[in-house]
Design a protein that fits this description.
- The chain has 57 residues and is mainly α.
- Helix content is 70%, strand content 0%.
- It is built from two helices and no strands.
- The chain has helices at 5-25, 27-45.
- Helix 1 packs antiparallel against helix 2 (27-45).
- The longest helix is centred in the first third of the chain and has 21 residues, at 5-25.
- The chain is elongated and about 35 Å long.
């Protein structure tokens, strides 16, 4: 996928969580969970600006 290791891990953590959510609550809830979890995890991972010079937006 061309993602750095941590971003790849963030994606798969969200996908695994979404699989359970989809089974229990449906596709819409699973999609919302992926959006929220990936956004939150990436924000935490890049809060200091790595690998660029400024904070991740």
């Amino acid at each position: 996928m061309g993602l750095p290791n941590r971003q790849y891990a963030i994606l798969w953590e969200a996908v695994e969580a979404a699989q359970v959510t989809r089974r229990d609550k449906g596709l819409g809830a699973a999609e919302e969970l992926i959006d929220r979890q990936v956004s939150d995890s990436c924000a935490v991972h890049h809060r200091d600006g790595d690998p660029s010079d400024g904070p991740w937006q």
